[in-house]
Amino acid sequence: MKKDIHFSPVKNIHVAIGKSSDGWKAFLLNRGDAQIENVMITSRGYGESNAKKQETSVLRHVIPHLEPKEFALIETVDESVLHLNNEYWVSYFIDSQVFDKKFIFLPDSIVDTNLTTIVELEMKGILHY
Fold first, then answer.
1. How much is the pLDDT for 1?
2. What span, in angstroms and rounded, lies between the C-alpha atoms of 97 and 48?
3. How many CB atoms lie under 10 A from the CB of residue 65?
4. pLDDT at residue number 77
5. What DSSP designation does 2 have?
6. Could you tell me the residue range of the domain that residue 68 belongs to?
7. Residue 74: phi, psi to the nearest 5?
8. Alpha carbon separation from 37 to 20, 63, 99, 117 (Å, rounded)
9. Domain count, the chain
């Protein structure tokens, strides 16, 4: 059962939303010193629009492994969901230890005024710690 699994705190793993000429893209960054394996990510959007609840489909992504100091594309982010909470639930293993964290970009936080340089991606974006 989940209550019997020890989850260590997530360190040096981040989700970033970068802006390129092709639009917005979500990336997973491994800023740690260890390879992460069996990475499972669910992404979804939820919130309200014009006082009505709005939800996107839940998308599932798998990254077999991610080397230290590397990054991987998760998905392209459609501009029509930027007004929602955009959640990325990331689970992965280092050796036999499982790690798990939700990264939530709040409504309307993915905007040009919040962009900073993300060195690994060589682009502007929003980095979630």
1. 61
2. 37
3. 14
4. 97
5. G
6. 2-128
7. -90, -55
8. 27, 8, 10, 27
9. 1
